[in-house]
Amino acid sequence: MEPLEKKLKIVERSPFARIARWVLKSSNVAMVLGKTIHLSGVSKENFLRDSAWVAHELCHVRQFQEHGYLRFLWLYLLESARMGYYHNKFEVEARMAGVKEAHLAKTKSGASTGHQG
After folding, report:
1. Confidence of residue 117 (pLDDT cuts 50, 70, 90)
2. Where on the tree of life does the source sit, at the highest rank (predicted)?
3. What pLDDT, in 10s, does the model give residues 48-100?
């Protein structure tokens, strides 16, 4: 079975991500629609260098797969309307995936340099 990451498409300078960037008042945004990661304000190369950010977006790809495309969009919008963006349970889960990846990356780099983390 092919890894999830191989089935992804990444779109730079996406108009969808540009709208999200404007709404969130952020200098750079990655957002997921199905199996496509849309970027605005960041290159694909720089996005892929940030393993925690990639893990966050891959979590959203998995959420789309688990719930189905339209159902996930609906659930995400409802959750955002009820709880706000930051407390949206789908964002909380994705942030945790990013935090775990950042911790793993830090642990790996500490192990490779001989430092304790």
Report:
1. very low
2. Bacteria
3. 999 999 999 999 999 999 999 999 999 999 999 999 999 999 999 999 999 99
What is the per-residue DSSP string for 75-88? HHHHHHHHH-TTT-
Of 36, 34, 31, 40, the C-alpha closest to 12 is: 40
Helices marked H in the chain = 15-24, 44-49, 51-67, 69-83, 89-113
| CA nearest neighbour of 31 among 15, 45, 46 | 15
In sign, the C-alpha dihedral spanning 69, 74, 75, 77 is positive
